[in-house]
């Protein structure tokens, strides 16, 4: 039997772009499969930084981001999350309500500053910027982008005794490589826009930018683009997306031989352990998990018991911005940060949020000589007033009940159709029994008395017997179905050719 309930939204005042969203295609049976995930952290550890370079990197605001581990991305998990991302609200629409990656998540997971100057600057001719700040220009500087491989080839090993000018050039190249392979990774695969390089002219000034806010603006835009049914790739800091999901959702988390350190900073390092194993799931499996997510599967306050002594004072003092309703900027990208839609992530009761203000995401051509600051004046004004628009909780249990009555009407409840059959029920039962049997086999009988040893053996025997019966039952069920179809065909034929009396 196929589950055909209208997946929503019933009221499209919030999700007004549903027709272009990937969930519309999935519901119509048009699977796009796993997204191609563009992030390039695997080669970062091949850069050899001197002690002087490390100090410059720290002054520029990237002392923690450089520690970002080269994680194995779960493309299927990311693809399933993207199916629930909505660019109208910059949130994930899950069965339990809206959640999002906030400024707090960026600050604590990546150790990036979320307060300061917006990540935007003058757009100069790429060749002149490279010549001035790197001392050289690549041969194939097309579209204002430089290849990551070129940066690594010429700047990844700086001699300890190099003159200061060369050290600074190598460090700028590293910083451009770092942001181009992590927070500002592009779908081109192996290139980074030169425009970011201009922000590394002065290392102390670079340290005054709100890099975390810029990274989130870039990621919001990347998630929004990837959520369209016409897209098959995604960029931005996908390590952040994956670790955010690990921290908050009981779906697809790796299993570790040793529990991760809950007090490390930045928090992404918590998931660095390579002793972890992850059950390989496909997009459909993850989709089903998200379609049936319960509130108990959500860690609403993952940082509640965190040891904040390791968190820098400037980051701690700016965490109140996690609830700022503001505009985030990254050069030509401006994206709304809407914490009023996700109050439970701040320990508040969720009220019905403000209506969605529609805005057009303009694709600005970032060319040299363009006065980008003038074109972004409204967004820049919103960012400058970020401290004036901190969302405060005031809701109670009654408000949350009202929210949960309102939310199912405006959201997309399901992504995929659910087909229920006796055979699939058998398969789920068999999988569960196998897992129980595996756990029982892993249990050591050492130290158990004879009574408990017998109990453990009895559990194994019962599960093994039930598993055998289930596996024998599936072919029988198939035969019954097949026989039923043949009888039906025969009956139909008999009726069709039955002679008149």
Automatic annotation (TrEMBL):
It holds the Pfam family PMD. GO terms for biological process: meristem maintenance. Residues 61-407 form the Aminotransferase-like plant mobile domain. Residues 478-489 have a biased composition (Basic residues). It comes from the Eukaryota. Residues 474-501 are annotated as: Disordered. InterPro entries: AminoTfrase-like_pln_mobile, MAIN-like. This is Aminotransferase-like plant mobile domain-containing protein.
